[in-house]
Amino acid sequence: MTTSDRRNLLILTEGQWHVHNAKTAMGVVRYGPDHVVALLDSSIAGRNVGEWMPGKDIPFVASVGEALELEPRPDTLLIGIAPTGGKLPETWRTTILEAIGAGLDVHSGLHTFLGDDPDFSAAAAAAGTRIVDYRRPPERHETSVGRRHRPGKRVILTVGTDCALGKMSVALELREAARAAGLSAVFVPTGQTGMMIEGWGVAIDRVISDFVQGTAEWLVEQAEQRGDWIIVEGQGSLDHPAYSSVTLGLMHGTTPQAMVMVHKAGLVEHDFDHLPDSSFPIARLPEFIRLHEQVAGLVAPSEVVAVALNTSLIADDADARQAIAETAAETGLPCDDPYRFGATALWAAIQGRVTALVAAAR
Questions:
Q1: What are phi and psi of 289, to 5 degrees?
Q2: Burial of 241 per CB tally in 10 Å (0-12, 13-18, 19+)
Q3: Which of the listed residues 115, 117, 240, 247 has the most CB atoms within 10 Å of its CB?
Q4: How confident is the model at residue 273 (pLDDT cuts 50, 70, 90)?
Q5: Residue 110 region, left (φ>0) first, then alpha (ψ -120 to 50), else beta?
Q6: Cis peptide before 72, with omega less than 30 degrees from 0?
């Protein structure tokens, strides 16, 4: 992306600036190439993103009009939430129409396609603006053909013990560490936020189930044309009552030589907020790791080569490092928090293990 291609974003999170629902906003702020002018959230207007994400100086504003007075002027309204079910909050309609009327494009990763809404589409046509629905599935419908990876290509998939743990963030951090080590590394976006950051990919959870593995397969094929180390963004978790299918599809469609298990230290139950009376405990790591290797191996051999630990629930760095050490001892695998402490050491361990795996398979 060139400087002239970058957008000036106003990100809408109205009343939902928290880790679960606003993970799209947080991901774009943290990793995206575009300039974020402001976040639109009247519930915390006057505050700054830097309170939650140190080093990011981005104001919260109360209205579209307030944002339009900033420099540079925003040219795009980005819907910054990823709620359960992916539906548009009805109370946001007026704000979106106001933004379109002011000449802003609208970028959305919701399951609700804003471009199909007659009010939004008519307003965009009148204003000469564009609505982009990142979750709109591709027209390419293919089942898996059991494609083998090209020689010299290494495919790694992030998997997790739950949803919204940071599988995308881990994949991006590892990609950057690999590049810093002089390797040709590619991040494969399989969700709307990753697509907003990278500018390509497919929101795999919107693909017809017969074509999930095939789509994952050709995404990896495209990635192999871009680099040698392919790091695929994971989705869901294999034992989540609502989102296990997308995880399975990615495992069998990408046929990774290796997987990185992402786990949140201190988390004991699955995120299942739309069924608050249900309890689904988080699996124990050693058994869960073996299960992933067994399930992946039904199609192609794969090993979990490291654990990326999300230590965000632990305030003290020393305690976080202790949790990392305990997880490494429990699993017998390299472990670190690549977001909190950097991904260099973890990537070096992953690279070594994957290289050995591939050599042993020849």
A1: -65, -45
A2: exposed
A3: 247
A4: low
A5: beta
A6: yes
d(C-alpha 192, C-alpha 104), whole Å: 20
Q: How far is CA 319 from CA 183, 325, 335, in A?
A: 33, 10, 14
Across the chain, the runs of DSSP E, i.e. the strands, are 8-12, 35-40, 60-61, 76-79, 105-108, 131-133, 154-160, 185-188, 229-232, 258-264, 303-310, 335-336
Structure tokens at 88: 């548009």
Give the pLDDT mean for 255-283.
Answer: 85
What residues contact residue 244 under an 8 Å CB cut-off, 6+ apart? 236, 237, 238
pTM over 0.85? The answer is yes
**How many Cβ atoms from other residues are within 10 Å of residue 217's Cβ?**
20
Q: How many angstroms separate the CA atoms of 260 and 174, rounded? A: 10
Distances (CA, A) of 243 to 20, 134, 248, 293, 327: 15, 19, 9, 19, 25
Q: How far is the first Cα of the chain from the last one, in angstroms, to the nearest whole number?
A: 38
Nearest Cα to 41, choosing from 7, 66, 76? Answer: 66
| Rounded mean pLDDT, 5-12 | 93
Q: Give the tokens for residue 9.
A: 């974003």
Instruction: Please name the amino acid found at residue 174.
Output: L
- Residue 166 is which amino acid? G
- The encoded tokens of residue 161 equal 């013990």
Q: Which helix (H) or strand (E) holds 152?
A: none
One DSSP character per residue, 300-331 reads S--EEEEEEEE-TT--SHHHHHHHHHHHHHHH
CA distance 267 to 283: 10
Alpha-carbon gap, residue 157 to 231, rounded angstroms: 6
Q: Report how far residue 303's alpha carbon sits from residue 164's, in angstroms, rounded to the nearest whole number.
A: 22
The 10 Å Cβ neighbour count of residue 315 is 8
List Cβ neighbours of 170 (8 Å cut-off, separation of 6 or more): 158, 260, 262, 308, 338, 339, 343
Q: What is the pLDDT of residues 155-200, one digit of tens each?
A: 999 999 999 899 999 999 999 999 999 999 999 999 999 999 999 9
Interval 102-115: pLDDT, tens? 999 999 999 999 99
Identify the residue whose tokens are 């579209």: 64
